[in-house]
Each structure stands twice: as structure tokens, then as C-alpha cells.
Amino acid sequence: MFDSLVPNVRLLEADDLGIGVHAKAEAGHASSAPDAPVVTDEHPRVREIVRLAGIYGGVILTGPPGTSKSFFAAAAAAMLAGDKSRYSFVQFHASYQYEDFMVGYSPTKSGFEEKTGPFLKLVDAATRDPEHTYVLVIDELSRADVGRVFGEALTYVERSKRELPFLIANGREIKVPSNLVILATMNPFDRGVDEVDAAFERRFAKVSMEPDRLQLLSILGDSGLEDAVQHRVAGWFGKVNGLSKTNPAAAVGHAYFAGITDESSLADLWDYQLQYVVDRAFRRDRNTGTEVEAAWKRIFDDATDDGDGASALAGN
Questions:
Q1: Residue 2 has what pLDDT?
Q2: Three-class secondary structure of residue 147 per DSSP
Q3: 1 found inside a domain
Q4: Residue pLDDT, tens place only, 46-80
Q5: What is the DSSP string of 154-182?
Q6: Quick one: 116 and 186 in the same domain?
Q7: How many domains does the chain have?
Q8: Would you say residue 303 has pLDDT above 90?
């Protein structure tokens, strides 16, 4: 249709301009969202992770959903490794096993063949290239049985035991090289957290990632919302996260608001995401849950009683 109106026109998509989903992902950003910020090595959170990685060889970012754990893990991995070929990602889940992570066997038409997992692949790559840092990012660390997934390597990922030889399940002798860094994310309220803490509390550094009001204000500042609405959203955010001190499931991360562009998208955020967080958190305290919902609805009022859109929670 456009060709008939304007001959020889070239249509450009967002990826052609370097701002689309695929372009952002290929560029190695910490997120593929077109409006995601570029995180530099000057960012204090990235610098903290990089510093701790040099001391401990591994860093766990722990916090409730929506607190930018995966975002900063990816950003720090890119800074540490310097090249996309030197870092990789894996996500743990309930059925993830040693055979997936280290080494196992996969079926073929004629039998089975050995399959090298992401950990062993990165160990081999880092061993061949000691002049560069290699990074493995593990999302949802607490979703799997970490002792079973790491197997013999659990002892040797500790900084003081790097470069010591040990045998893995197929009889091969390996070493975890000093230039391999492990970054991981986890929700501290997952069921497997106690096992993760026992396995890694002495081996890795742990960084707490909490809902951040300043990050929220930065996100809202680019959202197109009126200042008064932004103020009321920030008030609700502060109140509900205040309740999370005694009810951790109530925590709402700032990243939930990253896609907000107007009041309509803000309403969608409640209808399709946040109301389920609130329902789950307060299923045994329906009065408070109802107050939280009422406080959210006040965000869209033209006038407020207490200036922060969350007066219904003032007594909590």
C-alpha cells in the first residue's frame, strides 16, 4: 500500500533502528525491552556485583519478584565477560538435574551419546582461555535441588578450592578455573531457599535486592503519567511494601511498573498482575487485602485525603 503512495519507499522497523526487541537483545543489553536502559560499569549496583565476584567467585542476588535481579545479573555478566561468547544463562526448575547441568546422556537412534551441560561447557571454555573472565548466570537458583544439580562441583566452586582437580560422574577429571564467575538470582521465599543457603552461604556473596522507591520514581518519570498520579502510585508502593515487613509475600517490586505509559496501562497492571499478588499475599487476611485494593483504586481519584493515594492503609 505504501509503495503505491510513495514509490521506492523503504519501511523501517524498530529493530532496523536499533531500538526493537531483537536489536536490544543482540546488543547484549540486560533486557530486550526496547525502552530498557543501558547499564554501564559505572552503575553502583553493577560495580558492587563485579567487586564481590572478584572476591568470592560467585554472587547471589536475592529478593522478591520485580526487583531487577535478572536485569543486574545480566548487566554484570556483560561487564565481567566483555563478550557475549564468554557468558551464558541457565534457568533452574523443579526437574533440573545434574545430567542437565554437568554431564549426562541423551538418546539417539542407535543408543545414547554423552551430553555436556552448560556448567561443564563454560568450565572447558574458561580453562582454555585463562586471560578472560567467563560468567554463568543462573536464574531461579532456589527452584532446583542445588546439591543434586551441582554434585561434586558444589565443593569446588568455592574460591579457595578453585583449580583443585576432582572427578565428575563420567570419570573425567576437571578443575573449576579461577576465571569462572557464577551469578545467580533467587526469591528468598521459595521453598528451596534453606537448602540454597546451606550450600552457598560460605561459598558465595549474597546481595539483597529490595523494592526500590527511587527506581520506581525513575520509571514513573518516563511513563507519561501526570505528576499527581505518579505521587499516588509511589504512595501505594510505599504502603504495600511497608506491609511486606510482616508479610513478605506482599512485596511488590519496582520492575512491575516498567511498562507503564498511561493510566490505561496502569489499570491493566492491576487487573492482570498486581491483584493476584495482593490476593495471594492476603488470602488469610482479607480485611487488609481489601484495604490494599481500595488504596489502589484511590490512585485514579482526582482528589486524595492524605496526598499519597493510600489513606486506606494509614492505620497499618
A1: 45
A2: helix
A3: no
A4: 999 999 999 999 999 999 999 999 999 999 999 99
A5: HHHTSGGGTT--EE-TTS-EE---TTEEE
A6: yes
A7: 2
A8: no
- Evaluate whether residue 235 is within a structural domain: yes
Same domain? 87 vs 150: yes
The answer to whether position 8 is within a domain reads: no
> Average pLDDT, stretch 24-41?
55
Domain residue limits at 273: 213-313
**Residues in the chain, how many?**
316
- Please check the confidence at residue 169 and state whether its pLDDT lies above 60: yes
Burial (CB < 10 A; 0-12, 13-18, 19+), residue 259, is: middle
Q: How far is CA 233 from CA 22, 79, 228, 230, 309, in A?
A: 31, 33, 9, 5, 7
What is the grid cell recorded at 163? 583449580
User: In whole angstroms, what is the distance from residue 87 CA to residue 99 CA?
Assistant: 20
Examine the domain organization and report whether 227 and 184 are in the same domain: no
Q: Which of 183, 208, 233 is the last residue of a domain?
A: 208
Highest mean pLDDT among 162-176, 186-200, 297-311: 162-176
Is residue 33 scored above 60 in pLDDT?
no
- Return d(Cα 306, Cα 103) in angstroms, integer: 59
